[in-house]
Amino acid sequence: xxxxxFKNNCVYIEGxxxxxxxxxxxxxxxxxxECDEKGRWRGVAYNxxxxxxxxxxxxxxxxxTDKETFDCxxxxxxxxxxxYGEIIVGISGNEILKNAAEYGKGIRVLNQEPWExxxxxxxxxxxxxxxxxxxxxxxxxCFGEEFNGFYTFPSAERIAGLSLEDLAPLRxxxxxKYILDAAKKVAGGEVDLxxxxxxxxxxxxxxxxxxxxxxxxxxxxxxxxxxxxxxxFPKDVWIKRAMQVLFDGELPAEALPYAGIVQQYIFFYxxxxxxxx
DNA sequence: TCCCAGGCTCTCT
DNA sequence: AGAGAGCATGGG
Length: 277
Prior knowledge:
By secondary structure, the chain is α+β, with helices and mostly antiparallel strands.
């Protein structure tokens, strides 16, 4: 599917298909990747700082990364071993799905750190992406650890030790109390984020919904973006509108096995076109 | 000024 | 169980 070269503390991913960096890193599933004017992306995940870019010939370069970190973190983070070509073939019987996948070409569903994902999507509720990013950045700057001017995402244990007043500088509004409840339940073991992969999607969703401020949409985002439940189908306002306009409210059957990945194509399509079709 | 944003909780039927 | 108000904050 692709070829790896480890050289000069860089990882070269050659011949990989279906991997577009802007579509993947700035499509609303992750909130902390930044791109400079030359197309180089920078970010932190799983407490690892990374820079990456895509060359003209399609090779992706991960900078300052050794083989061990690649194998432990980035290979899975970027979902490199999933065959997106097969998924696209599977849904292309439906013309609208085919178009959406073409529009969002190269989106990969990331496998992000469970606590960061849960906390980020708690913050996302009834909010817009620009402000979500601002709140998350302030959270990391206030309570994370610095790497090259970037910050790690503070652990649930760290947040659990804070108060509402401590979180005031985030200006997260009514969501602050939800962040604290989530941190306390995760840090205290009442909600086990590391067992969710092995549960059925319904059991996993119910486990997450023990947290005050986590409903079906936030839970499904966590399950999809950090727990490999690719049949999770988060229904936000954009998706609800798109589903109505595109499919009269019902997801086509051929999309069901990979509903979550199709959801990303539809979300991207809906936002980019503002549904003016 | 009003409306809306990758929703959820609470209350009232 | 289903509908509707209220919620903090900031951008358009």
